[in-house]
Amino acid sequence: MAQRPIMKRINTKLEKVYRDILRIEETELRHSRFSNLSISEMHTIDAIGLHATPTSRTVAQRLHVTQGTLTVAIKHLVTKGYVERVHDPKDARIVNLQLTRKGRLMYRAHQAFHQQMVASFVQGFDDHDIQLIEAALDNLMAFINEQDQKRP
Amino acid sequence: MAQRPIMKRINTKLEKVYRDILRIEETELRHSRFSNLSISEMHTIDAIGLHATPTSRTVAQRLHVTQGTLTVAIKHLVTKGYVERVHDPKDARIVNLQLTRKGRLMYRAHQAFHQQMVASFVQGFDDHDIQLIEAALDNLMAFINEQDQKRP
DNA sequence: ACTGATACTTTGAATGTCAAATCAGTTGAA
DNA sequence: TTCAACTGATTTGACATTCAAAGTATCAGT
Prior knowledge:
Arc Repressor Mutant, subunit A, homodimer, MarR family transcriptional regulator (chains A, B), DNA-binding, transcription (chains A, B), globular, mainly alpha, 6 helices
């Protein structure tokens, strides 16, 4: 069960990274133009996306929250002017979600922050190395998917 | 401002990874022996550590929460039998925190899960590649630290 | 002994979440 | 055609996590 030192270090660093990134995002948000949004509201905007009009159900699944939770979240985002509800003409039960102009502004601002972050992530690496980093992330995604399979 | 496709992919994957890891940790926990613990309680146990007896203040700083928040969290963990409060003999104001036997069990179980995760992360890579991955994580940590500097 | 600083605790409010009950609209089978 | 079952969304009540602010206890320096 002995673990190599480098594995232990990677463990520690990975842990720090994925816990702190959310916190940093939150801090960044609080100091931006969009300081009346919480981190989970931002993720909701992110899950709706720029040009699509996904259903409420779809967005809830993307975020891994219940429909009830999403309904409440969307209500706030509509009040704040970031999201619009659009009734589906073919099926009146369905609510399609769409970002307003303000919502799209927010989306892009958040993406810009992510670009900065990714740029720093791969800083100093050449194309070959960057591919390798992507492959490592693919490994991690595979691990996550496995875990999701295991607990249906 | 155009972003190369690979950077965009890495962005998406990184985002997925750091949001989903917390979720699968939670799921894993709910199906384990320690299902009466929440993810944040687990992180609190993690921040106390196996053999140390850090002060309440230190742990709060590690977790980036206020002391009030930590006091409440510790109260629950003491009730559940994972943590002990130990009064500092030299300064009666200070509360040192220490894991119980049960708390140490939990700590080790969680570490084992992390080991699995890291093993999958670097799967298929040789030593040189693994060093490179570590360097990329260092970049990301540097980015996080920069952001923390920027917002004091 | 007094004063200010330090370490922790308590409390009240806000937020995010879920499960369960409910509402509204659709679909398919008798 | 009609109604029962289903589906998508909403509402509601409860609970967990967190913070800010006020409070308590103790310490250190003068």
